[in-house]
Amino acid sequence: DTAVSQTPKYLVTQMGNDKSIKCEQNLGHDTMYWYKQDSKKFLKIMFSYNNKELIINETVPNRFSPKSPDKAHLNLHINSLELGDSAVYFCASSQDLISGNTIYFGEGSWLTVV
Amino acid sequence: AQSVTQLGSHVSVSEGALVLLRCNYSSSVPPYLFWYVQYPNQGLQLLLKYTSAATLVKGINGFEAEFKKSETSFHLTKPSAHMSDAAEYFCAVSVDTGFQKLVFGTGTRLLVSP
Prior knowledge:
The complex is a heterodimer. Chain A contains no helices and 11 strands. Chain A is mainly β. In chain A, 0% of the residues lie in helices and 55% in strands. Chain A has strands at residues 4-7, 10-13, 19-25, 31-37, 43-50, 53-57, 64-70, 73-78, 87-94, 104-105, 109-113. Chain A is globular. Chain B is mainly beta. In chain B, the strands form 2 sheets. In chain B, strands 2, 4, 5, 9, 10 and 11 form a 6-stranded mixed sheet that branches. A 5-stranded antiparallel sheet of chain B has the order 1-3-8-7-6, with no helix packed on it. Chains A and B meet through strand 5 and strand 10 of A and strand 4, strand 5, strand 9 and strand 10 of B.
């Protein structure tokens, strides 16, 4: 069973559209994250949630809106997509917020905006 | 602010040769350090992590890393490269913000030739 699963894996869409990426973890973890990997492979945190509560918002444009209906799910909705949003988006989870805990990543969602 | 620097965006080795991927960190407090591997079109998988229990950390797939405070380094090594080790490798530090947050290096692409 996949520990952190996200859908869709590939997404091609036009500028201006709205899209969502869904994420679920079956590890029983309290904390979930979204990371963005750009075309140069650079990885950066976008958001973290702990027990459905927003903890970190890394100055992401408000076109990006995460939603956590329960602690096992963290979805990412993106409004008015721009070319620069093309990237790989990784969902991840960890046992809790404590520094040093292992963060487990999903397989990634490849978003291409045309 | 805590950060990591990976020297060399590409490292090429022959099958059977020693693998050495370099990572230097910057941190004013004892850091938590991680190495992740990313195979093509896949997510990130934890290779190993340093959490101050032991300076020599053994990970999966025969990799290990040594924490050297005097050199602020956490280099990743493997005695004998396999073709299957070809991938992107990321060093990361857990930033001490009170909340778990990984800051990644820019990655090193390992190329293994027969």
